[in-house]
Design goal:
82% of the residues lie in helices and 0% in strands. The protein is mainly alpha-helical. It has one domain.
């Protein structure tokens, strides 16, 4: 493959940056404030942790930036395999980025509503608005994940066909992404999905990111 030696390092760094930023938001900032089935408790948590939520939104913008870089770089690296298919994957991933940004705008709106809800003594109309914003935010995030996993699956197929990474590593992605896609579809239909369905994406992204940073350039050079 005719690829600049810095390309795998840049892609690896983007994989790591978006994976770590998403994990920080999911495990330590915004997501732990949610209380399943209790919108009042969730709004109270958001209102009482406004700074934490704002930091989470800012960190998610880092994820957005890293995803744009990652998607464009994957397209440029893999378009030799199949330009049209790579372009479709790029389009899916950029749609994912847009939906992620929208979901976090809704998070900010939910935060503002939650603060007003707490200040005004928990009025019913603000609870209703908060519930609508919260559910819309969740739907936007689930749709974002649908496009993320679809675009990722296509890119990982191209990775498998190319010599950009070892096939075992591409296969890891081809297990993790479709599994999460199925999980998100089930979630959108209103069913609960166990966390383990989504977990493999994080170790995959960390593994491929580290591998590309450490071994990627030499591997491609020798391929």
């Amino acid at each position: 493959m005719n690829i600049n030696k810095n390309t795998p390092r840049l892609i690896g760094a983007a994989f790591l940056l978006q994976a770590v930023a998403s994990a920080i938001v999911g495990l330590g900032l915004i997501e732990p404030l949610r209380v399943s089935g209790d919108i009042v408790a969730t709004m109270t948590n958001f209102a009482n942790n406004a700074i934490l939520v704002r930091v989470g939104i800012l960190v998610e913008m880092v994820t957005v930036t890293a995803l744009v870089i990652l998607s464009v770089m994957l397209y440029l690296a893999l378009r030799e395999q199949n330009r049209k298919v790579a372009f479709v994957a790029l389009g899916l991933r950029l749609t994912e980025v847009a939906l992620l940004a929208v979901s976090r705008i809704l998070t900010f709106a939910f935060l503002s509503t939650s603060q007003a809800f707490a200040v005004e003594g928990n009025p019913a109309y603000l609870q209703t608005i908060g519930k609508i914003l919260f559910e819309t935010q969740n739907t936007a995030y689930s749709l974002n994940m649908i496009f993320f996993t679809l675009g990722g699956t296509i890119f990982y197929v191209l990775l498998f066909q190319s010599r950009f990474v070892p096939r075992w590593l591409a296969t890891f992605g081809l297990i993790a992404a479709p599994l999460a896609f199925i999980g998100e579809l089930i979630t959108l239909m209103g069913f609960d999905v166990p966390l383990w369905v989504f977990i493999p994406n994080l170790p995959f992204e960390l593994t491929i990111g580290l591998w590309l940073l450490i071994k990627g350039a030499k591997y491609i050079e020798n391929a």
